[in-house]
Fold:
Amino acid sequence: MASKGSPVLALKKTVRTPSAVMHHPPAAPIRKIIHIDMDCFYAAVEMREHPELAGRPLAVGGGGRRGVVTTCNYEARAFGVRSAMPGFLARERCPHLIFLPPRFDLYREASREIRGIFHDYTSLVEPLSLDEAYLDVTASERFAWDIAKEIRARILRDTRLTASAGIAPNKMLAKIASDWRKPNGQFAILPEQIAGFMSGLPVRKLWGIGPKSAERFASQGVHTCADLQKLTLAELIHSFGKWGEELHRLCRGEDDREVSPHRISKSLSNETTFADHLVSMEECLAAIGELSGELLGELRLKASERRIRKAFVKVKFADFTRTTRECLCADPSGEIFRTLLAEAAQGIPSPSASWVRG
Ligand code: TTP
Ligand code: MG
Ligand code: MG
Structure:
């Protein structure tokens, strides 16, 4: 009898399930996103390679007048040294700062290793730069907290570098959270903690709000996301257009962007800061020839099938001011970059103005 009964049950099931699904669509699971970011990445790689420098303030980048700090270790940060700071200022803040030139091959190799580890946990990995990525681990039955811990332990074991992690139901919160316990820590924001977390969060932590917008908000008495939440959607759209809509969501901790493993970078550039001033147009043209040659080679290698829309040249002067020139262009060439450079050069007061860039 049992063998007769089963098909009936099965038939009943197949008849009932579709209508049940139609009337009660299953709720989307709460997503489990991990954002991993390496601690003082380039500097950490250099410290690993130079154990004799342990505990000493160290920066990677150019230490001369026009060199720039790409990053520095936490010992140097205690003196106020920061990424993108001119080398001379970094030395002013920390006179015994050790400057090392960047070694991108080493950083790329470490980056390749950590990405390999991420892929052991999910195929939904979206790298944002060499040292960070989003992982969507919703499909795993394990706690995202435990996965993050294990990934960080494996990174340390395999690369001898530390990483920090943020765990949250969306990308924006996970990225904010990974900064919360840096270095070598992790922090989770659970769904029921979002409202409380957001209300105390300074607006400058939100996506797209840089120091200038933060100042503008502060001048209007808006410091935290709680302050921003008091503005209505209509008011935000009135002040910020389309971005107002996004702000309305972001300041409440809402973000539904998917972790997208195939995100393709939208622009490619190549730049350098010269140790000595370039003082003639000839020198500048030679430099831009070299930079644009490398760039066009990389473009052919990485994006030969992509459609190009624009070319641009950025020039940086001895006093750190900069200018850019761009044009619509489907097929960039050395000639186009030279022309843009010449345009950028117009209006430069004297031949002693010095330059960078391509
Ligand atoms: P970040 O992750 O922003 O910084 P970090 O890893 O050095 O330090 P943190 O512990 O705060 O995460 O950047 C990763 C690497 O990218 C960094 O090591 C060097 C490079 N970088 C630059 O070249 N220029 C920059 O302005 C910044 C911010 C980073
Ligand atoms: Mg980092
Ligand atoms: Mg980073």
